[in-house]
Amino acid sequence: MDYGLVLISHAVDKTFKDEQGIEFNQIVPTLSSKPRNIVSRMCDIIGYSRAVQEESGITSTKLFMRGTPRYVAGSRFKYTPDYIDFTYNDLVKAIGEAIDKQMEEDGKEYFTDERSNLYATKTQELNFDDLVSEFNEMIDSIIKSSEEDSFKTYWQPRIIQITDKYLGKGQKVNQCSRDQVEALDLIVTDLKELIEEEEEK
User: Span 88-101, mean pLDDT?
Assistant: First the structure.
């Protein structure tokens, strides 16, 4: 769907038994087995990160991209390295180089340099002023169609719950900056859904 999805989990050292009944320990995500099976099939890369002390004594964080009996990791990309420095640029570089090597092996006709970013496209399409106007119109409509007690006891707490969810506790839409256009879009969407639910009752 043109989204890049990152899922983060803590890790736990668990004891397992192999086919011969011999116990071994492996570091795995803290997710229980059923959701972990779902997530594992979704992921292109499963990385395990931890601090590593270099011979020089300097400690750095590495992202391990190939699984071992000691920890769970893996990649759909055949040529990703065993581990990298855990930085965004190093991850992009590792994936790019893995794709280039795969392209040399399989042929250029199966690859493209075309990029898409649905988040960036969606953000560019959002109009801050239109969203503020739409929000205010919905609030005005609710106030006009509700009795004062109904607004205070039913609508107001739910509207505050929505704005707190996306802006932070106590923040208001009229305090939004233009940098918060995505949050404003989510507020408007949730408020529309709340109004629709109420109309269907």
Answer: 92
Domain shared by 134 and 92, yes or no: no
Same domain for 74 and 43:
yes
Mean pLDDT of the chain: 88
Out of 52, 78, 110, a domain closes at 110
Q: How many domains does the chain have?
A: 2
φ/ψ of residue 56, rounded to 5: -75, -10
- Residue 86, helix vs strand vs coil: coil
Gap between the Cα atoms of 164 and 179, Å rounded: 17
For residues 151 and 159, is the Cβ–Cβ distance under 8 A? no
Question: Cα dist. 134→29, 75, 127, 137, 199 in Å?
Answer: 43, 44, 11, 5, 18
H or E segment and range at residue 123: helix 118-125
127: helix, coil or strand? coil
Question: pLDDT tens digit string along 43-74?
Answer: 999 999 999 988 888 899 999 999 998 999 99
Residue 117 lies in a domain: no
Range of the domain at 179: 126-200
